[in-house]
Amino acid sequence: MNMYGSKVVGWGAALPDEVVTNKDFEARLETNDAWITERTGIKERRMGGTTSSLAVEAAQKALANAGLQPSDIGLLVLSTTTPEQTVPATSGTIQAQLGLTCGAFDINAACAGFVYGLVVGHSMIATGTERVLVIGSDTLSKITDQQDRSTAVLFADGAGAVILERTAPEDNAVLGWDLGVDGSLVPILYCDHGGYLKMEGREVFKRAVLAMVSSAKTAMERAGVTADDIALVVPHQANIRIIEAANNRLGLSMEKTAIVLDTTGNTSSGSVPLALSAAVEKGMVNPGEYILFSGFGAGMTWASAVVRWGK
Ligand code: UT7
Predict the structure, then answer these.
(1) Whose CA is closest to atom 48 on ligand 1?
(2) First and final CA of the chain: distance in angstroms?
(3) CA–CA distance from 195 to each of 37, 145, 305 (Å)?
(4) Helices assigned H by DSSP within 146-257
């Protein structure tokens, strides 16, 4: 058993102000609202801000939600695939803007990155850190060719954050997880330095469903729960059809699944914590109930975790 357990004590999310609708794309690309809605479930998305500005806003909300001060945070973990510079890490900028005095580092596991960050945060708490701020923030619009209809309508900007706090081992709430990557699949989704995202959509779709299903199963097995025990599913928000296909295979209903992609598009690291915040605000989960987080993305990475909710 670990020396300590961890639990979520705060959360927050942030989206840029500019709304870009399917109709806006219809006006300038060879696409239409019906295609985008049917193939993806996305109706609109937000664009603007920077990876650090969105992260800071989400983190400030999480601190306020938890009733904590910057000095209470012992470590900052930023998941991002759109850092502001190659060096240094964007987490440092965020650390300074938030007034934190703790250590900070970036991780890049693409759209699975937030769940990777959650597990890293939990692991740091298990060995003694008191509180970890885990942020997922991405500004994918900056690495998306806005003239390419196959990617422009999908990718957008947003951020979310949670605060993990140390607890007695018997109260531990991060119960089981699975982290993975298949590096042989780099060519199906990547972005070179200074370039734009390139994606083999159909291939990513197929692999995403398989990865989500097997990873979620592994995390649930390790947590000692089954699909029936899950009160809330918080999947990566890439495509409603991917979520439906994975849910069907896992025996999870869409009614208990957090969905924000219709208004956010795919925000990579931001998507899981954005969906979590929205679901919590809607009252979709109660203290003591189990949440299944699941993400997948470029790499090709995947990550799932089962967390007992409680505040
Ligand atoms: O964050 C993780 C990474 N990303 C993902 O998870 C995305 C995974 N993939 C997907 O979500 C889907 O594959 C897409 C939404 C990207 C595409 O949907 P699809 O049903 O797999 O369509 P497709 O790629 O098979 O394309 C069907 C047709 C093609 O035309 P032809 O070749 O049949 O004539 C495309 O050129 O749709 C065309 N198309 C579009 N048409 C209108 C592609 N993009 C568009 C568009 N508007 N925006």
Answers:
(1) 149
(2) 23
(3) 27, 9, 32
(4) 149-152, 201-223, 240-250
- How far apart are the C-alpha atoms of 174 and 172, rounded to whole Å? 6
Q: Say if ligand 1 is within 6 A of residue 261 CB.
A: no
Q: Which two tokens stand for residue 194?
A: 């200074």
User: Domains along the chain?
Assistant: 5-170 (3.40.47.10), 173-308 (3.40.47.10)
Among all residues, which ones are annotated catalytic?
111, 236, 266
pLDDT (tens digit, 9 = 90+) per residue, 194-235? 999 999 999 999 999 999 999 999 999 999 999 999 999 999
* pTM score: 0.98
74 with 166: CB under 8 angstroms?
no
Q: What separation in Å is there between the alpha carbon of 202 and the centre of ligand 1?
A: 7
Q: 14 is written with which tokens? A: 């942030």
DSSP state of 195: S
Query: Mind listing the pLDDT tens digit for each residue in 126-180?
Result: 999 999 999 999 999 999 999 999 999 999 999 999 999 999 999 999 999 999 9
